[in-house]
Amino acid sequence: MKLAKFWAWITFLAGVLFFFLPLIGTFEFSLRARRGVYSFDAYRKVLDDPQFRDTFGYSIVIALFTIVVGVLIVTPTAFWVRLKLPRFRPIIEFITLLPLVIPPIVIVFGYIRLYNTSSYLPLTGSAFGTNILLTLGYTVLALPYMYRAVDTGLSAIDVRTLTEAALSLGASWFTIITRLILPNVLVAVLSGAFLTFAIVIGEYVFAALLNRPAFGPYMVWMGGNRAYEPAALAVIAFTITWACMALIQLATRLSKHTKAQR
Amino acid sequence: MSATAEANKRSTRTSLPLNWVGVAPFILFAVLFLILPTIHIVIGAFRTADGGFTLMNLRGLADSSIMGAIWISMKISLLTAFLGCLGGLLLAIAVTRGGLPAWFRDGTLTFSGVASNFAGVPLAFAFIATLGRLGLVSVVLRDWLGINLAAIGFNLISFTGLSLAYLYFQVPLMVLIITPALDGLRREWREAAESLGASNAQYWRMVALPVLWPSLLGTFALLFANAFGAVATAMALTGSSLSIIPIILFAQIRGDVLQDPHLGYAIAFGMIVITGIANLIYIVLRTRAERWLK
C-alpha cells in the first residue's frame, strides 16, 4: 500500500506539472513585453486596442443572444417532452447530442452552402442575417450542454403535478412556462448559460468562416502578428473560462441550499 | 351528454397535432440549422456539379494529399485518445484510490472541468508561450540545465507539439468521465478478491479492468472524435503547416486551395462518417458500461 501511495503522488505531481506549467509559462510570457523587466504592457496594449474592444464586445453580445435563444428553445421543449411526449424523449435527446457527433466545421460548411445569397433564405447576404446565423449556429453548438442542464433541472421537480395544479387554477401555458417552470429550473439554466458563454466567447471556426468580427478570429490574427499580446489574451480567455466554471459551481451550491430548505 | 361526447371526440382528434405544437419550434430549429445543413453536405458528396449522382467526389478523397491529411488526423486522434485515456485513468486512480488527501480529488475534478473546456486558440498560445522557442520551459531548460530543445529535435509546431496541446483537454475529459466509473467499483469486489488471495495487480487485471473495459473503450472513442473534429488549436498553433483534415476542409471552404466544391462535400462527409462511427462505438459501449454502475 505504501508503494501505491508513492506512485499516486508521482502521478499527481506529473499531472500538476503538465497542467500548471503551461499556465505559469503563459502568464510569465505575457509579462515580458518590456525588455529586461516584467510589466503589464502586453495587457495594456491589448486593452487599449480598439479592435480588442470591438471584437470582445461583439462576442459578448452574440453569447448573450445565444443564451437567450437557447433558453427559449430548450426550456419549453424539455418541459413539453417530459409532460406530453415522454415516448419521444430518446429521439429529442439524440437530436440534442448530434452537435457532438457532427464536427462544427461541417455544420458551418452546410450553412454557407444552404443560406448563401442565391438560396431561399439568404442569411449570409447581409451582416445582420449572418449575425443571426452565427447566433443560431452557436445555439446548436451549445444545445447538448443546455438541454442536458435543463433536463436535469426538470427531473428534480414534479412537472406533471405542478402543471396540473397550475392548469386547474386557470394558468395559461405561457404563465406556466415563465412563472412556474423557468424559476424552478433557473439554476440549471444558469449553469447551461455559463457553459454556453465559455464556449461562444473564444469560438473560432464559425466566426471565421462566416466572416464575422468576433474575438476568436481576432485572437488568431494577434497570434500571427504579435509576440506577447497573444499570451495576455490566453490569460484573459482562461480567466473567463475559470469565472464561468466558478459561477456554475456557485449556482449548483445555491440550488442545494434551496433544496435543503424544502 | 352528447355534448361532452362531442367535446371528447374533438379533443382526441386535435390532441395529436396539439402535442406536437409544443416541440414544433425546436424541431424547426433543429431541422433548419442542424439536420438540413448536414444532409445538404452528405447529398452534395454524391452529386456532380449539374445535379446527377456520382461517386467521383468520394474517389477524389483518394488524392494523395487528402489521404495523407486524413491519415495524420487519424494518427493524432488515435495517439492523443490513447495517451489521454492512459493519463486520465492514472490520474483518476491516483486521486480516487491512491490515499492522497481528499481535497486533491475535488480539486482535480474542478480543474478538469475547466481544462476540458480550455481548447481552441488560447490553448495554442499557452503552449507557444511555454514550449515555443522563447517559452518558459524552453528557456529554463536551456539556461539552467543546458538542454536545447530545438537542438535535440523538439519542435512545437509539429505533430508532437500538437499532440501535447491536445492532451491538455483530452486527459481532463478522461478524468471527468472515468472518475464516476472508478467510484462504481465496489469495495466488496476488492475485499472478495483479497480474501481469495489475489494480489493488487491480480485485482486490477482480473476484476477492475474487465469491469472498466467498456468505459475505457467508449471514452477512447469519444476522445478520438473530440480530437478529430478540432480545428482552432491546430490552426493557431501550426498555421497551415501541419495538414490535418479539418484544416484542409477549412482552406477548401475559404476557397484557398482546391477549386472543386464537391470535393469539399466529400471531405466533410468522410469526417462525419469517421466521427459518427467513433460516437456509435462510444454509445454502445457506454450502455454496456452502465450495467455495472447501477
Walkthrough of the structure:
The complex is a heterodimer of chains A (262) and B (294). Chain A has 262 residues and is mainly alpha-helical. Chain A contains 12 helices and no strands. The longest helix of chain A has 34 residues, at 50-83. Chain B is mostly helical and 294 residues long. Chain B has a single domain, classed as MetI-like fold (Orthogonal Bundle), CATH 1.10.3720. Chain B is built from 13 helices and no strands. Mean pLDDT of chain B is 84; it is low at 7-14. At the A-B interface, helix 1, helix 3, helix 4, helix 5 and helix 6 of A face helix 2, helix 4, helix 5, helix 6 and helix 8 of B.
Labels describing this entry:
heterodimer; A: 262 residues; 81% helix; globular; B: 294 residues; mainly alpha; MetI-like fold; 0% strand
Number of helices of chain A: 12
Question: Major sheet of chain A: size, sense and barrel closure?
Answer: none
The topology string of helices and strands of chain B comes to HHHHHHHHHHHHH
- The mean pLDDT of chain A is 88
What general form of chain B does the structure show? Answer: globular
Secondary structure tally, helices of chain B: 13
What is the CATH level 1 assignment of chain B? Mainly Alpha
The greatest inter-chain interface is formed by: A-B, 78 and 78 residues
CATH arch. level architecture of chain B: Orthogonal Bundle
Cα radius of gyration of chain B in angstroms: 25 Å
Rg of chain A, Å, rounded: 22 Å
Query: Spans of chain B of 5+ residues with little confidence (pLDDT < 50)?
Result: 7-14
Q: How many beta-strand segments of chain A? A: 0
Low-confidence stretches of chain A: none
Q: What's the mean pLDDT score of chain B?
A: 84
CATH class term of chain A: Mainly Alpha
CATH fold annotation of chain B: MetI-like fold
Beta-strand segment tally of chain B = 0
The rounded distance between the terminal residues' Cα atoms of chain A is: 44 Å
Number of discrete domains of chain A: 1
- Using the coordinates shown, work out and report the CATH topology of chain A: MetI-like fold
